[in-house]
Design brief:
The complex is a heterodimer of chains A (about 750) and B (about 190).
Chain A lengths: L7 H8 L13 H4 L4 E6 L8 E7 L2 E7 L12 H5 L14 E4 L2 E4 L2 H19 L4 E5 L5 H15 L4 E3 L6 H11 L16 E5 L3 H4 L3 H10 L3 E5 L12 E3 L6 H14 L5 H7 E2 L1 H7 L5 H8 L3 H13 L3 E5 L1 H4 L4 H14 L9 E4 L18 E2 L3 E2 L3 H11 L13 H9 L5 E5 L3 H4 L3 H10 L2 E6 L11 E4 L8 E4 L4 E5 L12 H11 L11 H12 L11 H7 L2 E2 L26 E2 L18 E6 L15 H6 L4 E4 L1 H6 L7 E6 L3 E8 L7 E5 L28 E7 L5 H5 L6
Parallel strand pairs in A: 6-7, 6-16, 8-9, 8-12, 9-10, 11-22, 12-13, 16-17, 17-18, 23-27, 24-26
Antiparallel strand pairs in A: 1-2, 2-3, 4-5, 4-18, 14-15, 19-20, 20-21, 23-28, 25-26, 25-28
Helix pairs in contact in A: 4-20, 5-20, 5-21, 6-15, 9-12, 9-13, 9-15, 12-13, 16-21, 17-19
Chain B lengths: L3 E5 L9 H6 L12 E4 L8 E4 L8 H5 L26 H5 L6 E3 L4 E3 L5 H4 L6 H5 L5 E5 H7 L3 E8 L2 E11 L20
Parallel strand pairs in B: 1-8
Antiparallel strand pairs in B: 1-6, 2-3, 4-5, 7-8
Chain lengths: ~750, ~190
């Protein structure tokens, strides 16, 4: 049913990705036709949410100007930010709704497309039950859209299955922070980073995935701070590391426990802090006894003396900060890895003070805000738990329904795809999510999508996933609507509308409202503006941990961002959490959490002896729906390459630029080798931004962390060999330049 | 911008090429970047270096120009070649000790970084130094760089017997130290 209606090549020929190189009117046009206005807003890509000014003329974004007054990035931008304006006025842009036909897609009127969507959703629910429909959302949506999507699922459709692509991003850290602190937010503002005496960075390619943070790291170093990097690869920030710990993939938790082992052995813990403010220390202290540095060295591949040194530096510092990202979170023990980082900070009393603490480096644009207000399968607005009766009562009142009408927790993102594959979920309505590229084991994902009885998508480009849809509703880009997002620090920011959606494309929240009307739920979706949705969200979040009640668009503009929680209109916001040394648990204590080691869900063995790990490059963003359409960014890194250490390459007779076939327990792909001494010899790395035969996620596996449900992208097993011939895609590739 | 100077710190560079992309957005030469980033030897190192024009006090490029097409402004900015004069001979490209000038064959003219003359004359910082996420390229007052940075600035270079003094400063390490860049050197392995 949901197979692509045409060969993928034909769809790409019609809908892209094509490469856009030049602004509207050409490179020289701006001098003749200058911008009419500069719109102060934020980059549409990662969780840094850098301030940027978009140049606008005649309802088109024609360029950018740095925004130096915005305090987080002070004008700095990575190449994605510099070129982000080229996603606007893109030739691939969907300007009308599309309905699939026998021979491809045809444009449709909104009435036709929305009537069709609503009737198919209703038919599936009538036939198979409410939970036969699932919703996918995304963490690039504004918080208003995320909130409304959660309400749409629960109120308009009555399904319990709504989850989002943040499930592939932040959730391990989120669970660990909730366990330890009772709240899912980085406890520190980024301005704390340069003040730390020791900065430990675990599993984060800062320079490529959150480039602006590099300046904070270098300023820490300028101030005399020591930099410790834990990563199987030397990524660009390692060039200035004082200590580099090349951990074996999947062994992070052992390394981190060994650091705590040394800290406790040397008596470097903060006993007063532990006694007064924490619980659970004794069990954790007992659990790390087994990991002396020698044993840890054997397991992790990090020398014992490096472990000793890192532990001493971290333990002896008056102010230490630990930053972490997907490297430790994308594991079947992602929660344990994050908890082990938090345990280190709690044991040394590094929390609630300037220049001290831990932080997750949120990846997606609204990775923080998008997970606070109800598009997660187990949460209601304000970061409330969906199984908490008081939370249900509060939100039900705001929504004007009975608490029992709110469905209970549903399945997480990968579990929804599994249930589709198993025939349990029959219809999917998705926006801002490209699972064909971003979920693990993409052959499985394709099989699942092919089984759907109805698949509706809201998107601005025809992504690899939208190619499978029955109906594609032409939605809006970030710069085409107003709303808020929360950046990596929990700082709530105001996205300004710069232009209207082009053609017949529409603002996303209007699409849900029109669908809700067709589903007979009009009275619950009476909005005329993003501001009205935000005002309802403020009420819905009120009293929750992520309390937005005191935040207004005007206050954000005035303060250049407001850190939540912000419980009242006269409250300035909360840049640093826990300054009163109280967690958000009922007892106010910080909790140590046990972090037992478990083997990867895809262990290396004789047949698959090499670790495969995946990640990003600086010029591409996530599944590439936007960035694979921007010429300069594609030119910078045109195709995925497999990074291999010369020692491993030599064993297989592989030289720089050779074609290499990588085989996992699921599939094989063939890519060019990039032979580098900057990766462990037992590990290969492939960036994941591409689709089809170039997709790293054909190789990855669907093992989930049991609590966070994050897939284990960072640890797979594979074997490699030199390919005899180039892959088909290398012959067929046609790049269309505009 | 009075009191502001341009500083290049290769040790901060992360090779992201934001500077190149931003340079290509500058109004006077939009679409054509004037600076570049060297990936020194990707097999053996993650080190990268951004190159802007160093704007020499006594520019070699101008000295070797047979058409007298390369001029320096009063405030020390060495400009792209003057289009009516430039004969596209590439002498400057060959002679520059830093490897900066580019021959634009389609324009039959040498073009190079002019330190965003259009922007700095309006009180804006150069595009590359504004966006640089690692601040390997920085346009700030001298006092600020000396107070905040651990590396120290210099603008005197020796190329064989040629001493070159530049308007742009290069940040150099407080003490020299060799950096090994093979992961194996940092690993623990049971020695057989």
């Amino acid at each position: 049913m949901a197979k692509p209606p045409l060969p993928v090549e034909a769809l790409i020929d019609r809908y892209g990705p094509h490469l856009n190189y030049v602004p509207p009117g050409g490179w020289r046009d701006e001098s003749r036709h200058p911008a009419q206005k500069l719109v102060k807003t934020h980059c549409c890509f990662c969780g840094q949410q850098c301030g940027i000014q978009l140049k606008v003329r005649d309802n088109q974004v024609i360029g950018f100007e740095p925004w130096e007054e915005f305090p987080f990035n002070r004008g700095m931008l990575c190449p994605k930010g510099v070129k982000r304006y080229l996603q606007n006025n893109h030739p691939d842009r969907l300007l009308d709704p599309l309905l699939r036909t026998e021979t491809g897609f045809r444009t449709a009127t909104w009435d036709e497309a929305l009537d069709f969507t609503a009737s198919r959703l209703r038919e599936v629910q009538e036939r198979y039950g409410k939970d036969a429909v699932a919703i996918y959302g995304g963490a690039s949506l504004t918080t208003e859209k995320s909130y409304l999507l959660g309400k749409f699922a629960r109120v308009a459709l009555g399904t319990r299955h709504i989850d989002y692509n943040g499930r592939l991003c932040m959730v391990s850290a989120g669970v660990a922070y909730k366990l330890a602190f009772g709240v899912d937010r980085s406890p520190i503002p980024w301005s704390d980073i340069p003040k730390a005496q020791v900065l430990l960075i675990a599993g984060s390619n800062v320079a490529e995935c959150s480039p602006i943070t590099t300046d904070y790291v270098w300023r820490c170093r300028d101030n005399g701070g020591k930099l410790i990097i834990i990563d199987p690869r030397m990524t660009p920030i390692t060039r200035n590391a004082d200590l580099y710990l090349p951990v074996r993939p999947g062994m992070d938790v052992v390394l981190l426990m060994s650091l705590l082992h040394v800290i406790l052995r040397e008596g470097l813990e903060d006993r007063e802090f532990i006694k007064k403010y924490t619980t659970g220390f004794e069990q954790v202290a007992e659990s790390v006894k087994q990991y002396d540095p020698k044993r840890a060295a054997d397991l992790t591949g990090v020398p014992p003396e490096s472990i000793e040194k890192a532990a001493r530096w971290f333990g002896e510092a008056e102010r230490a900060i630990a930053l972490h990202a997907r490297g430790i979170e994308h594991q079947s023990k992602g929660v344990e890895n994050c908890s082990a980082i938090i345990n280190l900070c709690l044991a040394t009393g590094n929390i609630g003070r300037e220049g001290a603490g831990c932080a997750m480096i949120t990846g997606q644009g609204n990775g923080q805000g998008g997970r606070e207000h109800g598009q997660k399968c187990d949460q209601l607005p304000g970061q409330r738990q969906i199984d908490d009766p008081a939370a249900r009562a509060h939100v039900a009142k705001v929504w004007g329904i009975a608490p029992e009408e709110i469905p209970q927790a549903g399945l997480s993102a990968q579990e929804i795809m599994n249930a589709i594959h198993a025939g349990e979920i029959k219809a999917l309505f998705s926006m801002c999510f490209n699972p064909m590229v971003s979920l693990p084991n993409s052959d499985f994902t394709r099989e699942a999508l092919d089984k759907l009885e109805f698949f509706g998508v809201v998107d601005f480009f025809l992504s690899e996933t939208a190619q499978h849809a029955d109906v594609v509703l032409a939605g809006s880009l970030q710069e085409e609507d107003e709303g808020v997002v929360a950046n990596v620090e929990g700082r709530v920011l105001h996205i300004q509308k710069a232009v209207d959606p082009p053609g017949n494309a529409r603002v996303d929240w209007e699409i849900y409202c029109d669908l809700a009307r067709r589903l007979g739920k009009e009275k619950f979706f009476p909005y005329h503006s993003s501001r009205e949705i935000f005002d309802e969200l403020r009420e819905a979040s009120r009293g929750g941990h992520a309390d937005y009640y005191g935040i207004t668009y005007e206050k954000i503009d005035r303060q250049l961002g407001v850190f939540w929680p912000c419980p009242s209109l006269d409250h300035p916001g909360t840049p640093r959490l826990f300054e009163d040394m109280k967690s958000m648990h009922a007892d106010g204590k910080f909790r140590f959490v046990l972090t037992p080691y478990r083997e990867s869900g895809d262990p290396v063995n004789e047949d698959f002896p090499v670790y495969l790990t995946t990640g990003r490059v600086v010029s591409q963003y996530l599944s590439g729906t936007q960035t694979r359409r921007i010429g300069a960014l594609v030119d910078q890194y045109p195709e995925p390459r497999i990074e291999i250490h010369p020692r491993l390459a030599g064993q297989h007779g592989i030289k720089e630029g050779d074609w290499v076939t990588v085989t996992s327990r699921r599939a094989e792909i063939t890519l060019r080798a990039m032979v580098v001494r900057t990766i462990r010899p037992d590990t290969v790395f492939i960036p994941y931004h591409w689709s089809g035969q170039r997709s790293a996620n054909k190789l990855t596996h669907r093992t989930l962390d049991p609590r966070s449900k994050i897939p284990e992208f960072k640890v797979s097993a594979c074997r490699i060999k030199k390919a005899e011939n180039p892959p088909d895609w290398a012959y067929n590739e046609t790049v269309n330049k505009t | 911008m009075f009191g502001y100077e341009f500083y290049v710190d290769p040790s901060r560079c992360i090779g992201c090429q934001s500077c190149i992309n931003a340079c290509a957005e500058c109004e006077t030469h939009r679409g054509t970047p004037m600076i570049h980033v060297d990936f020194l030897d990707r097999t053996n190192t993650i080190a990268t270096v951004p190159f802007v024009c160093m704007h020499c006090e006594d520019p070699t490029c101008a000295k070797v120009c047979p058409a007298d097409a390369i001029k320096k402004t009063e405030d020390g900015v060495v400009q792209s070649s003057l289009k009516p004069r430039c004969i596209a001979c590439s002498n400057c490209v060959l002679a520059c000790p830093f490897g900066i000038p580019k021959m634009m064959t389609e324009l039959e003219q040498m073009m190079k970084c002019d330190m965003c003359y259009d922007r700095t004359s309006e009180g804006k910082r150069p595009m590359c130094a504004t966006v640089c996420p690692s601040q390997a390229l920085a346009y700030v007052p001298r006092e600020q760089i000396e107070r905040l940075r651990r590396e120290k600035p210099t603008n005197t270079f020796f190329f064989g017997k040629q001493k070159v003094t530049t308007k742009v400063f290069m940040m150099i390490p407080p003490e020299q130290d060799a950096l090994s860049v093979d992961v194996v050197d940092y690993m623990w392995e049971e020695k057989a």
